[in-house]
Each structure stands twice: as structure tokens, then as C-alpha cells.
Amino acid sequence: YYERCLTIKVKTLGPDHPSTTATYGNLGNAYNDNREYDKAIEHYERCLTVKVQTIGPDHADTALVYDNLGNAFNNKGDYDKA
């Protein structure tokens, strides 16, 4: 359902809309929980790019994405990037 949601949001709201960005994060969480770390990282990185561009690198919401990326890299065993 997250993939379908993302498709709709990108089409109707655009890829950089805050609601679309939230869905990138939700997909990242789902993939991370399912041990699909590369897919999780891909979605978190997309989310991070938009967050940095729209609210800045030092915003609390951006920090959450950094945390999620760190967790995904850690779970993947890529400790240097975590």
C-alpha cells in the first residue's frame, strides 16, 4: 500500500511535497523492518534530500531521517556509514 500511496502522491502532489516525503520515510521503515536494507536506504536518502532542501539540514525532522539512515546502515552491517 505504501508503494501505491507514493505513486499517487508523486502524481498529485509532486515528489517534493511534505506528504510525499513522509511516504518515502514510511517505505524506508517498512523495507528496514523487512531486512531489505538497500531499498530502505534508497527511500531514506530520497527523503533526506527533500528534507534538506525544504526545511534544512539542522531541523528535527531531518535529524529523524539521519537516524533512520544510520539504523539501516547499521542493520546492513555497514558500520562506517552508520
3D architecture notes:
With 82 residues, this protein is mainly α. It has helices at 2-12, 18-33, 37-54, 60-76. The model has no long low-confidence stretch (mean pLDDT 96).
Compact overview of the structure:
By secondary structure, the protein is mostly helical. The protein is built from four helices and no strands.
Helix content: over 70%
Write the element-wise H/E pattern from the N-terminal end onward.
Answer: HHHH
Cα radius of gyration in angstroms: 12 Å
* Apparent shape: flat
Number of helical segments with 4 or more residues: 4
Distance between the termini: 28 Å
Give the topology:
Layout: H1 2-12, H2 18-33, H3 37-54, H4 60-76
List keywords for this structure.
82 residues, 4 helices, flat, mainly alpha
